[in-house]
Amino acid sequence: MTGLLESLIRGLGNGSVYALLALGFVIIYKATRVISFAQPALMLAGAVAVSYLAEVTGFYAAVLLAALLIAGVALAIERIAIRPMVGRPVFVVSIITLGIDVVVRVVVNGFIGRDVRQVGDPWGFAQVSLGPLVVQQRWLAMLLVTAVLVTLLFAFFRYTRYGLAMRAAAFDQETALAQGVSVGMVFALSWGLAGFLAAIAGMFVGTGQGIEQLTWVIALKALPAIIVGGLDSLGGAVVGGLAIGVVESLFQSYQGEFAPWLGQNFAVVTPYVVMLVVLLVRPYGLFGTREVERV
């Protein structure tokens, strides 16, 4: 039982990172109806920014500055590359974000170099005892920070003027425009928020193990998370991210014992297996909006 609980905590910690990335995907999608494939690059850029800034300002200040910096980069991307494409087919804009991802990663890889860069986090692989459980401090930090950010994010959407404007634009852009909502502002703010969350996720990805040029691949696990939770559901993004993290962790712990015939490292593909199952059973996700087309 102890091993199971420790595996669950590890899964929830890693799942928190997937949830932050998934929230970025969903926020942009709800505002623009575009799936942004630039999130992996923004995550990697955030981690690199933390690693350099931590050498000057200290870790915690570096995290905040890096998150704001990447939010600014995301705003610039939206204004320069995405805003001129408003009105174009959604597929075209999504392909553009894929190109943006490649360009940003090429630039960021120049700052990473060939060696693994550390983000300067205070946790590393240090462990802490919670009664009979022994867990890594970074998993608890992931859970705590994600819980705080998700709470603030939901409060922002529920109680602030800009959050309500984003909800209105996500529901019906034409009606929102008629009511005086600046849809352009909503687009920009969605990218800024996604960049901020991606930077925080990148920092956590680099804790303990550091970052390298292929670290961006981890961000792809947010795609199964948004499919599981629902592409247009913020709550679903959180649930989906945590679920993917837990399933992956359980397979890492027990697959070799109970299903060795699946081969080694099957846990790596479990997020995509879960995504496939959900697509077959509930294509719009657990919490997504079911679209009905009349013909």
UniProtKB/TrEMBL annotation:
TM regions (residue ranges): 12-29, 59-77, 89-112, 139-159, 180-205, 225-247, 259-281
Primary location group: membrane
Keywords from the named record: Amino-acid transport, Cell membrane, Membrane, Transmembrane, Transmembrane helix, Transport
Compartment(s) of residence: Cell membrane
Signal peptide extent: none
One term under GO cellular component: plasma membrane
Pfam families referenced in this protein's UniProt entry, alphabetically: BPD_transp_2
GO-annotated biological processes: amino acid transport
Membrane topology: Multi-pass membrane protein
InterPro entries documented for this protein: ABC_transp_permease, BCAA_transport_permease
Recorded superkingdom: Bacteria
Listed GO MF terms: transmembrane transporter activity
Family membership noted in the UniProt record: Belongs to the binding-protein-dependent transport system permease family. LivHM subfamily.
PANTHER family associated with the record: ABC TRANSPORTER PERMEASE PROTEIN, BRANCHED-CHAIN AMINO ACID TRANSPORT SYSTEM PERMEASE PROTEIN LIVH
Protein name, UniProt field: Branched-chain amino acid ABC transporter permease
Organism: Nonomuraea cavernae
